[in-house]
Amino acid sequence: MMGAPTQPVTRDLDVSETTFTGPDLTTFLGLDALGLTAVGQYLTAERAVIECRMPIGFEDPFCKACGAQGQARGTVARSLAHVPVGWRPTQLVVRLRRFGCTRCRRVWRQDTSTLAEPRARLTHAAVEWGLRALSLESMSVSWVAAALGISWHTANTAILTRAEQILNEAPDRLEGVEVLGVDEHVWRHTKRGDRYVTVIIDLTPVRHEAGPARLLDVVLGRSKKVFKTWLATRGKSWRERVEVATGRFHRVQERRRRGAPTGPGGHGPLPRRIPSRRQARPVPPPDPAGDHRLTGPSG
């Protein structure tokens, strides 16, 4: 079981040289970076619910379809999970202004792209917190989901999506790659969907003894076509200078395709049938003196 994350080392604060300001819940929760202002709170032993509002005057009241100016039609609430405070899930209830077009009858809300992704359950700050907790603090997805007060699947989807964005947005992640490592991995332990993925890593630091291997990409599927499709999206000059070191699964597939022996080390064919554990272990003969089934009347 994964242990609790290590607590950071804190030092005593020099009160004599510190300038204090008035207590502000908006600044304390980091809501000002998201463009929110805290206007209320509801605290329980299980969670903290903070009521927030978007700044007035920065919304776009004009219709995107016809360009006419819309009229305010009240507010709607959107619930989002935020960074936990004191290991207590923190939920934001954001009041958004609602507008309606008088010409084409179109209805829209305030833009919340700086706050969270469309139809997301977590704020941008909560996703970044979960990603750091998972990668740097070695926390499990279950711990992250419990700290945020959301389900496991919601936390896992949001964190993996953000990690994939960071991985793909890195402009220099494919520079200096000399050796590619390719292998399969079981990432879904259920019967629904594709259970295998192809993991592509950079083995150049391992060859030069400069550090550990680094992850380049994870692609759904386990066939050779998946890896060929991934290579086809790269430049020809990059493919020519890269060496591929596949895993055992891909080596066996390559030997079978060429008609070569596919045994361990390539010295013979693989066994057609591997005996099970019950068949491999000899069964001792029964002991009549110790078998209670032979002591009854029928015995």
Give me the secondary-structure topology.
Blueprint: H1 25-28, E1 37-43, E2 48-53, E3 70-85, E4 88-101, E5 107-109, H2 124-135, H3 141-148, H4 152-169, E6 179-186, E7 196-202, H5 204-207, E8 214-220, H6 224-232, H7 236-240, E9 243-246, H8 248-258, H9 277-280
Parallel strand pairs: 2-4, 6-9
Antiparallel strand pairs: 1-2, 3-4, 4-5, 6-7, 7-8
Order of helices and strands: HEEEEEHHHEEHEHHEHH
How far apart the termini lie comes to: 50 Å
The largest pleated sheet is described as:
5 strands, mixed
Quaternary structure annotation: single chain
* Number of E strands: 9
Helix content: 25-40%
* Chain-averaged pLDDT: 77
Beta-strand content bin:
15-25%
Cα gyration radius (Å): 29 Å
Molecular shape: globular
Secondary structure class reads: alpha+beta
Question: Helical element count?
Answer: 9
Low-confidence segments, ≥5 residues, pLDDT <50?
248-257, 262-283
Task: List key phrases describing it.
single chain, 299 residues, alpha+beta, 9 helices, 25% helix, globular
Describe the fold and architecture.
By secondary structure, this protein is of the alpha+beta class. Helix content is 25%, strand content 24%. The strands form 2 sheets. Strands 1, 2, 3, 4 and 5 form a 5-stranded mixed β-sheet that branches. A hairpin with a 5-residue loop joins strand 4 and strand 5 (107-109). The chain is globular, with a radius of gyration of 29 Å. The model is unreliable at 248-257 and 262-283 (pLDDT under 50).
Short description:
By secondary structure, the protein is an alpha+beta fold. The chain has helices at residues 25-28, 124-135, 141-148, 152-169, 204-207, 224-232, 236-240, 248-258, 277-280; strands at 37-43, 48-53, 70-85, 88-101, 107-109, 179-186, 196-202, 214-220, 243-246.
